[in-house]
Amino acid sequence: MGVVPSEGLDQIYDAIRAAATTVNGVSCLIFVSPDPDALCACKLLTTLLKADTVPHETIPVVGYTDLARINRQLIEPNDALRSIVMLNCGGLVDLSEIISIGEQVRVYVLDYHRPMNLHNLYGHPQVVVAIDLTEHDKTVQEAYEALEYASLSEDDDGDGDEDDDNEDDRASEEGDQSDDEDELTGAPKDLSDAQKLARSRRLRKRLSRRADNSDSEEDLGHATKRRRERRQQLRQQRVVKDYYAHTTQYGESVSTLMYRMTDQLGRTRSKELLWLAIVGMTHLWINHRMTPSDMASVFGAEDDENAEGDSKPRPMTAADLANHRRADADAIVPEDAFFLAMYRHWALYDALYHSSYIATKLGSWRDKGQSRLHRFLLQMGMPLKESLQLYSEMDIKYRRSLPEKLLSVAARYNLDEIVFPSFHRQNGYKSVIGASDAVYALSALLAGGAYHLAKWASGQQDSLSAQAFGGPKIEANTSRLWVQNFYVAYDALTNTELLYSGIQLAMQFQRAMVQTGVTILDRHLVKTLKHFRFAILQHNMTLVRMQGDSQIAPTAVILEQLAEFLIAAYREFKSKKDLPLVLAAPNETGDTYLVLGTTAKTMSSRRNPFGLAFQLAANQLSAQVKQDTFETCLMQIPAEDLEAFMETLQVHINR
Amino acid sequence: MPPILPPPTPAEIEFLAEHELITIIPSSRIGELRFLEGTYGPFAPPERADVPLWLAVTLRGKGKCRVVPPAWLTVEALQTRCDEERAHAQFSALPFHHAAIARLLLSPPCADDIPNAASLRILVRDLRDLRQSKILGGVGLLDGEYLQMDGLGWMEVNEMRPFFVKAFGTIRQLAATAVAAKAEDDDVADHGAA
């Protein structure tokens, strides 16, 4: 199949199902990267598979070494294996280099990371990639195939008619090119036998194709032909290079893809599934991995579906609203959401102070900003006493008028982007959870759910979280802690109590994040270089301490939020020039740093120049540097190499 | 005399109610389904099909069909029934299994397909309360000979049964004692007269 357009996703599912009927045992493995989007997609897929009683296994994977380990343990010895689904992982690298793809196995890649590796897209017949057709570029495919074919004919010495000098030239060109590609893929270099096998199989295929084409070119002059070929090849290399150098971008959220799949399969729509798709999509949105136009188009579609699925005409009538407020109502309600993280779950003042959007716009960490925040509340007509109250304890009068007031005052403070269309889920009187709240909660649970919940549970035995989590059951082996986190978050998709604990945890993280951000700003720890800024977190900072406590390195999501906070703060208060930011956070022992590169995300762009630069810099440095996550601009670097890495990065970033 | 079986539990009644037929709209093509009790299908959307409730619930759980609520399970219909209950002394006409069917259809996974499920749940509850009060009103009519209440559902009959059977027995006993006492009195009176 190769490439499957997002209109034909049912093919993937049908293939998985058909393959499952031919064998006894677990024929389908689902690899899930630990992010809320993949989590939701996984839940959607397993719901489908369960309904059709297809045996499957969900495997959370965190990075490439992990994937290699699983390859040894689960893929190679499994004879019944027919399908592998990769959710938000593996799209960036040549998969045939990492996992051994047996004769009968097909790998389905659903990944929002871009650029998708061309080997996956066009190179391997057993790797199936789901992408939007607008992303499918014919010229890139042709260029890739031509180059691949050329490099293979190079290997093949039977072609004796090459001029010697030319050949050398080309060989070096080719070498460069393939080096570049390897660098770009960032894959482990040790080639497995299976991978070599796959290469040779590809070779055979291409050779046979070549035999068909060669006749027509016979009549051209030898020299002209060579020159033309060479020019063409350079052009093709440029096309491929451009494709990769297009820097890191993001595609469509995989949970949206999955939801479309259920739709294409003709499954009856259900709120449960729609909610998962909304949450997955919102994850991309609040982490700025979607442009407003993407959001609008996807949102429009889901909005319609929602209206249809609920069989309710829109806009909603008062009676409908009354219906939603019933004790037993379970409904997904469209709303105007705010970039005001989890405001339904803590005090309004805290929500405003800890929202990176508002905090950076008002500068609320400085005295001046603090008074501006007070004025903001004053203009909203919100008594300070009420705004320090938990939202649930706030006077109903203020609670009702909050969105309206917030909007009217926000306009005066140049906070126009504060509002975005979203949904919340109403579960009777029990809970109201906004889609973005759910995302924050899931991210927090993924970052440290197991540890923190266990800690809380042991602290207060009768608490809700204790019940939800079933008491402390933390393993001594902390290296597998993230797997527990993954399953806690996975359970939270269906368990409201657990999700609520996730929100509490997310608020803790948010507090720590803002505190750390303010410390960095106060102490002027951000250094500005020519092409980017960088800051190194210190051990005594709240965020690091908190993470150190849970014995895991600060996770990417929180670091990313911190970076976003700092960038926004710089934009508003320090310098007009938007520069990308590199953050380095030490782990608990301080021997390695987690380095994250992120760019000023104005709300309309989502390019990240670091993806490429990081890999180039890492390749120049020692092998100690580990890029062991599915994000391109995130790396683990030993403390002693940090300085060198920064210097190398400086060289590469302006290229 | 054979021992009287204990009355069925609500779960048992629900189980039996699951054999009632209900209309579904399949959302994808499904081949013939063979079961011990019968064969259903093949299903081809958008053709409606009548299947037992248990099959409908199972298929809906897998997202392979939509359930069409029966005619009596709409806001208007139930509202009319409620009004009837209030206006008349008789019980309004509802299916024998209405309580069990309503419960199954108004809980997940089927609830998503039923328009205004939340209002319906309240109406079903109202209806039950109305009918219960009427049933309890019937206690006054107990005479130890027979009791007729038309239009009751099985679940309702089952609910009233333990109390009514006992009351019935007690009343009969009392009546028997009363008769015996009267006969004695008569005897005494006869003797007295004689």
Automatic annotation (TrEMBL), chain A:
GO terms for molecular function: chromatin binding; DNA replication origin binding; single-stranded DNA binding. The keyword Transferase does not apply. It is found in: Nucleus. Keywords: Cell cycle, DNA replication, Nucleus. Residues 153-184 have a biased composition (Acidic residues). Residues 150-240 are annotated as: Disordered. It comes from Caulochytrium protostelioides. InterPro entries: CDC45. One of its GO terms (biological process) is mitotic DNA replication preinitiation complex assembly. This is CDC45-like protein. Its main location: nucleus. One of its GO terms (cellular component) is DNA replication preinitiation complex. It holds the Pfam family CDC45. The keyword Iron does not apply. Belongs to the CDC45 family. Residues 198-208 have a biased composition (Basic residues).
UniProtKB/TrEMBL annotation, chain B:
CDD domains: GINS_A_psf2 (cd11712), GINS_B_Psf2 (cd21694). Residues 9-68 form the DNA replication complex GINS protein PSF2 N-terminal domain. GO terms for biological process: chromosome segregation; DNA replication; double-strand break repair via break-induced replication. Residues 72-164 form the GINS subunit domain. Gene3D superfamilies: 1.20.58.1020, 3.40.5.50. InterPro entries: GINS_A (IPR021151), GINS_bundle-like_dom_sf (IPR036224), GINS_Psf2 (IPR007257), PSF2_N (IPR056784). It comes from the Eukaryota. It is found in: Nucleus. Its main location: nucleus. GO terms for cellular component: GINS complex. Keywords: Chromosome partition, DNA replication, Nucleus. PANTHER family: DNA REPLICATION COMPLEX GINS PROTEIN PSF2. Belongs to the GINS2/PSF2 family. Component of the GINS complex. This is DNA replication complex GINS protein PSF2.
